Amino acid sequence: MKSVYFDNAATTCLRPEVVEVMSDVLSNCYGNPSSTHGFGRQAKSHIENARKTIAESLGAAPSEIVFTSGGTEADNQILRAAVRDLGVKRIISSKIEHHAVTHTIDQLCEEYNLTVHFVNLLENGEIDVDHLKNLLESDSELTLVSLMHINNEIGVKIDLNLVAELCKAHGAYFHSDTVQTIGHYNVDVNKTPVDFLVASAHKFHGPKGVGFAFVRKNSKLKPLIFGGSQERGHRAGTESVHNIVGMAKALEISLEKLDYESQHITQLKTHFVNRLKSELPGVMFNGDSDRSEKSTYTLINVRLPVSAEKAPLLLFQLDIKGIACSKGSACQSGSDMGSHVLSAILSGGELAKPSLRFSFSAMNTIAEVDYAVDVIKEFVLV
Is there a single domain that holds both residue 225 and residue 304? Predict the structure, then answer.
């Protein structure tokens, strides 16, 4: 049986170079970074070198990078601190944000007297920029806008620069979940006046369990986790040195190879889309994920012309054939809940048809795409 991995939006494999640097740290650098002796200073040096590498990749200052356990923690910290510490009274977001954002907003609404607005969405899941402008102009209360750059299920993008400039012009803070962005696109915080960004290493061939938040200088955020004074007081707890070093190495390599790898992945996606369109009548793509100008190059979300009776067997059939993909985001796998993203943009009849997300990396091949399409055709057309 073939083994084909098309679930890279959920997580990616580790690059060999990342495994190598992590293994070296695990074997030879076991000191506590907070210790003042030589073993501790060695570990601290690894962390600060990693921080510098990541900061330079974003055009940020090292002091603006806060290491976390991943994107979910970073989102939680920023949203909670914005309300608790910065005095935010109103949040503008969307109904297709990652649950790390939507569930945190729900919890904050239970604890604080917040006003929450959801920006209107176009049919393909894009935000209605005019509605966002109206929302920003409609109230003078201190506002946080939280909108992800690239949606993890349908790949739709926002204009990060445009939204950041709108927020700046109206005196609002801007937080963007860029978990599907960092490592796949160049981001320069000197050119984009965003206040807060988040990233997760395992989305760009780094280790799981580590990520970072970009927190612009003088934001005055307090920690989510209290204890020691690690991360300049932004996050307590002994740092995971090997994971942090692995993340920095993964990001460094991803950006060094960005031009080549993005071209290769774009070719994979284009080939996948073209074959499905030409050989599978009735196939549809959610969120315009088949259009490169509207969607990230890293994934497609396909709605297949399959009966309601046959639909539940599709993912099972692909798995039997060795093809890994996703019914929704990985965070929803194993639950009976449907996709909140697709529910926000599709009608009942469209939702009844099976939708699958195929997400790609530079390690995938055209032959794997062809195999996946052949398996899908066999299931749908027989």
Answer: no
Q: Are residues 240 and 277 in the same domain?
A: no
Q: What is residue 352's predicted lDDT score, i.e. its pLDDT?
A: 85
State the pLDDT confidence band at 120, using cuts at 50, 70 and 90: very high
State how far the Cα of 253 lies from the Cα of 260, in Å rounded to an integer: 12
End-to-end CA, the chain = 21
120 beta partners: none
Structure tokens at 303: 């709605």
Do 192 and 285 lie in one domain? The reply is: no
Note if 331 is an active site residue: yes
Q: Which domain holds residue 285?
A: 4-12+258-381
Residues 34 and 174 in one domain: yes
Answer yes or no: pTM beyond 0.85: yes
Annotated active-site residue in 13, 167, 325, 331? 331
> Which tens digit of pLDDT belongs to each residue from 336-364?
568 999 999 998 888 888 999 999 999 99
Containing 300, the helix (H) or strand (E) segment is strand 299-303
State the Cα–Cα distance between residues 288 and 300, nearest whole angstrom: 9
Say whether both 62 and 183 belong to one domain: yes
